[in-house]
Write a structure and sequence with these properties.
190 residues, mainly alpha, Arc Repressor Mutant, subunit A, Tetracycline Repressor, domain 2, 2 domains, Homeodomain-like_sf, DNA-binding, HTH-type_TetR-like_transc_reg
Amino acid sequence: MAREKKFSTEDIYQEAHSLLMAVGYDKFSFGLLANSLSVSRAAIYKYYTNKDELIYDYMISEMEKMVDDLEKLDWLTDYPAQFQQLFALIFEYGDVHQISFMIPNKQIADDEKMKEKKQRSQLLHKRFFQQIQSFIQTGQTNGYIKKDIPKSIIIELIFHSVTIPDRVGLSQSERAYYLQEIICQGIFEK
């Protein structure tokens, strides 16, 4: 009997990420993942019972990193520099945002493990959103951001900017720079 290739949860996450970005949520399967890892599907089932469980664990892992990175930003610099750091962070995790938009808002399994995963995911989203909302509020209070624009619109604009397809071949940092410029300065010459 052949020995099963060794792989880690991180290997699963990296391959799942690549496949989700390449084929999307609907076409993602344990069969594709197993082929990509050069292992049997049974080997993956030792870790996860279904793709939703895997994707939730992956997303929770990435969101924990993102929240941690957000909390480590240098908030001592001036507000425009802080905004630049925040925007760069959001673009750094742009694929994660795109994957989260792929996942259908369907009812997940009623088992306790999936309920806990969903609650953890919601808690992390809420924590991240509250920090961003507080940041935008500070910008409005201190006169950097127009007060008449609802915070929720600003946040949605920032987060959805990472899902704009790159059809011209810009690097991630170039895209982030130009989109930030458009959000902060508009497209009209002054």
